[in-house]
Amino acid sequence: MKPESPSTVLRSIVWPICLVGAKYRDQHNVMTVAWINQVSVNPLLIMVSIAKTRFTHDMIVKTGEFVVSILNSEQKEISSFCGFRSGRDVDKISQLNLKTAPSTIVKVPRLVDCLGNLECKVTAQHQAGDHTLFIAEIVAADITEDSIQPLVMYQGKTINFR
Q1: What is the tens place of the pLDDT at every residue in 121-148?
Q2: What residue spans define the domains of the chain?
Q3: Alpha-carbon distance 61 to 65, whole Å?
Q4: What is the CA radius of gyration of the chain?
Protein backbone atom coordinates (compact mmCIF):
# COMPACT_ATOMS: atom_id res chain seq x y z
CA MET A 1 0.00 0.00 0.00
CA LYS A 2 1.12 3.49 -0.84
CA PRO A 3 0.67 6.25 1.79
CA GLU A 4 -1.66 9.01 0.63
CA SER A 5 -3.22 12.13 2.12
CA PRO A 6 -6.59 11.57 3.81
CA SER A 7 -8.28 14.16 1.55
CA THR A 8 -7.10 12.31 -1.57
CA VAL A 9 -8.40 8.97 -0.31
CA LEU A 10 -11.69 10.57 0.80
CA ARG A 11 -12.31 11.57 -2.83
CA SER A 12 -12.68 7.85 -3.58
CA ILE A 13 -16.12 7.87 -1.96
CA VAL A 14 -18.96 8.11 -4.48
CA TRP A 15 -21.46 10.85 -3.56
CA PRO A 16 -24.88 11.59 -4.98
CA ILE A 17 -25.27 15.11 -6.33
CA CYS A 18 -28.50 16.72 -5.20
CA LEU A 19 -30.07 20.11 -4.83
CA VAL A 20 -31.31 21.25 -1.45
CA GLY A 21 -34.19 23.66 -1.70
CA ALA A 22 -35.36 26.01 1.03
CA LYS A 23 -37.98 28.72 1.17
CA TYR A 24 -38.16 31.66 3.55
CA ARG A 25 -41.07 34.06 3.15
CA ASP A 26 -41.43 34.45 -0.63
CA GLN A 27 -37.87 33.52 -1.57
CA HIS A 28 -37.17 30.00 -2.88
CA ASN A 29 -33.53 28.95 -3.31
CA VAL A 30 -31.69 25.78 -4.30
CA MET A 31 -28.05 24.85 -3.80
CA THR A 32 -25.93 21.90 -4.89
CA VAL A 33 -24.87 19.36 -2.25
CA ALA A 34 -22.95 16.11 -2.34
CA TRP A 35 -22.49 15.58 1.41
CA ILE A 36 -25.77 13.83 2.07
CA ASN A 37 -26.58 10.43 3.53
CA GLN A 38 -29.27 8.31 5.14
CA VAL A 39 -28.65 7.97 8.89
CA SER A 40 -31.66 5.99 10.18
CA VAL A 41 -34.39 3.64 9.01
CA ASN A 42 -36.83 4.11 11.88
CA PRO A 43 -37.56 6.97 11.75
CA LEU A 44 -36.39 7.55 8.20
CA LEU A 45 -33.70 10.23 8.64
CA ILE A 46 -31.13 11.82 6.36
CA MET A 47 -28.20 14.13 7.02
CA VAL A 48 -27.13 17.01 4.81
CA SER A 49 -23.98 19.02 5.49
CA ILE A 50 -24.17 22.71 4.57
CA ALA A 51 -21.56 25.43 5.06
CA LYS A 52 -22.64 28.08 7.55
CA THR A 53 -21.93 30.82 4.99
CA ARG A 54 -24.41 29.48 2.43
CA PHE A 55 -27.66 31.39 1.83
CA THR A 56 -29.70 28.18 2.06
CA HIS A 57 -28.20 27.42 5.48
CA ASP A 58 -29.91 30.44 7.04
CA MET A 59 -33.20 29.66 5.32
CA ILE A 60 -33.21 26.13 6.78
CA VAL A 61 -32.31 27.42 10.24
CA LYS A 62 -35.26 29.86 10.10
CA THR A 63 -37.85 27.40 8.73
CA GLY A 64 -36.74 23.95 9.90
CA GLU A 65 -37.51 22.31 6.57
CA PHE A 66 -36.06 21.65 3.12
CA VAL A 67 -36.46 19.51 0.02
CA VAL A 68 -33.72 17.31 -1.40
CA SER A 69 -34.04 16.98 -5.17
CA ILE A 70 -32.01 14.08 -6.54
CA LEU A 71 -30.47 15.12 -9.85
CA ASN A 72 -30.34 12.81 -12.84
CA SER A 73 -27.29 12.22 -15.01
CA GLU A 74 -28.50 14.77 -17.58
CA GLN A 75 -28.53 17.65 -15.05
CA LYS A 76 -24.81 18.36 -14.71
CA GLU A 77 -25.22 21.98 -15.87
CA ILE A 78 -27.90 22.60 -13.23
CA SER A 79 -25.59 21.16 -10.60
CA SER A 80 -22.72 23.42 -11.66
CA PHE A 81 -24.85 26.57 -11.90
CA CYS A 82 -26.45 26.03 -8.48
CA GLY A 83 -23.12 25.11 -6.91
CA PHE A 84 -21.20 28.20 -8.00
CA ARG A 85 -23.79 30.96 -7.64
CA SER A 86 -25.40 32.32 -4.51
CA GLY A 87 -29.11 32.79 -4.06
CA ARG A 88 -28.22 36.11 -2.47
CA ASP A 89 -27.22 37.35 -5.93
CA VAL A 90 -29.33 35.41 -8.44
CA ASP A 91 -32.72 33.71 -8.58
CA LYS A 92 -31.52 30.27 -9.67
CA ILE A 93 -35.05 28.90 -10.14
CA SER A 94 -35.97 31.53 -12.76
CA GLN A 95 -32.45 31.75 -14.29
CA LEU A 96 -32.53 28.02 -15.06
CA ASN A 97 -36.27 27.96 -15.77
CA LEU A 98 -36.67 25.10 -13.29
CA LYS A 99 -40.19 23.68 -13.08
CA THR A 100 -41.56 23.49 -9.56
CA ALA A 101 -44.68 22.08 -7.96
CA PRO A 102 -46.10 22.34 -4.46
CA SER A 103 -44.79 19.78 -2.01
CA THR A 104 -47.12 17.47 -0.14
CA ILE A 105 -46.21 18.51 3.42
CA VAL A 106 -43.44 21.14 3.58
CA LYS A 107 -43.73 24.68 2.20
CA VAL A 108 -40.65 24.33 0.00
CA PRO A 109 -41.61 23.56 -3.64
CA ARG A 110 -40.24 20.38 -5.18
CA LEU A 111 -38.47 20.23 -8.54
CA VAL A 112 -40.46 18.51 -11.26
CA ASP A 113 -37.73 17.34 -13.67
CA CYS A 114 -35.29 15.67 -11.27
CA LEU A 115 -35.06 11.97 -10.44
CA GLY A 116 -36.95 12.36 -7.16
CA ASN A 117 -37.67 14.63 -4.20
CA LEU A 118 -37.48 14.13 -0.45
CA GLU A 119 -39.52 16.50 1.73
CA CYS A 120 -37.66 16.94 5.02
CA LYS A 121 -38.32 18.39 8.47
CA VAL A 122 -35.24 19.14 10.59
CA THR A 123 -35.03 17.14 13.82
CA ALA A 124 -31.50 18.16 14.89
CA GLN A 125 -28.57 20.40 13.99
CA HIS A 126 -24.95 19.68 14.83
CA GLN A 127 -22.01 21.99 14.29
CA ALA A 128 -19.18 20.24 12.47
CA GLY A 129 -16.25 22.52 11.70
CA ASP A 130 -17.32 25.09 9.12
CA HIS A 131 -20.54 23.19 8.33
CA THR A 132 -23.83 22.39 10.03
CA LEU A 133 -25.15 18.85 9.85
CA PHE A 134 -28.91 19.03 9.45
CA ILE A 135 -30.59 15.78 10.50
CA ALA A 136 -34.09 15.61 9.06
CA GLU A 137 -37.00 13.22 8.90
CA ILE A 138 -38.29 12.44 5.43
CA VAL A 139 -42.00 13.25 5.63
CA ALA A 140 -42.92 12.73 1.95
CA ALA A 141 -41.22 11.70 -1.29
CA ASP A 142 -41.80 11.30 -5.02
CA ILE A 143 -39.92 9.72 -7.91
CA THR A 144 -40.26 10.43 -11.62
CA GLU A 145 -38.94 7.17 -13.01
CA ASP A 146 -36.71 4.70 -11.20
CA SER A 147 -34.79 3.72 -14.36
CA ILE A 148 -33.20 7.19 -14.68
CA GLN A 149 -29.51 7.37 -13.74
CA PRO A 150 -28.57 9.65 -10.83
CA LEU A 151 -25.84 12.26 -11.09
CA VAL A 152 -22.90 11.25 -8.88
CA MET A 153 -19.47 12.58 -7.98
CA TYR A 154 -16.29 10.52 -7.87
CA GLN A 155 -12.81 12.00 -7.37
CA GLY A 156 -14.19 15.52 -7.72
CA LYS A 157 -15.88 14.89 -11.08
CA THR A 158 -19.44 14.09 -12.08
CA ILE A 159 -19.81 10.64 -13.60
CA ASN A 160 -22.53 8.36 -14.91
CA PHE A 161 -23.58 5.91 -12.23
CA ARG A 162 -24.05 2.93 -14.53
Answers
A1: 999 999 999 999 999 999 999 998 767 8
A2: 30-37+56-143
A3: 8
A4: 15
